[in-house]
Every structure is written in structure tokens, then in C-alpha cells.
Task: structure prediction
Amino acid sequence: MSYQTYHLCRRYLGRSVYITCHCGTRYHGVLKHVDDKKAYILPYSTELDGSSDRFFAPALVGLTLGTIAGLALAPRPYPIYPVYPPYPPYPPYPYPYY
Result:
């Protein structure tokens, strides 16, 4: 590892980084340790191409729209009653005995 790369990695210890290898593979994770030959990261996931994000987003949108439509079309469990006015205030203490 070159002198410039080593000191660049030392500045970003404990932060989220992207590391691109010579072969073109790109890793995303937290930079944990740097020595004179290697940089060690804790990867966020084992998926390198991010294909799981493309599957999850449409499924979440479909689930949300289905829930909203189901709640809108579902029958109400009870009829909607008007709001009643509040009760009149109680008489002052002591209450009259009958």
C-alpha cells in the first residue's frame, strides 16, 4: 500500500467507505483497521450488486397500496353515530339528599 493511500485510509477509520479493487470489484462497509499492506472493512452486506434493493422496493409499494385499498373498501364494523353534546355540569357540593 502506498504512503498516500495508507494515510488516506487512516483518516477514514470508523467511517462508511467504498473500496474499489484493481479487478473492479467494489466493496461498501465500515473501515475498521489499516496496516502497511491491507485495509480491513466490515461489509454492510454480502450482496455486491445490490439486486435485493430492486426487488424489495416494488414489493413494498404494492403492499402499501393494497393495504390502503383494503381499508377503504372494507365494511365498517359499526355505523357512524353523531357526536353527542357534553353532559350538563354536576350541582355544587354538598349534593342534596333525597
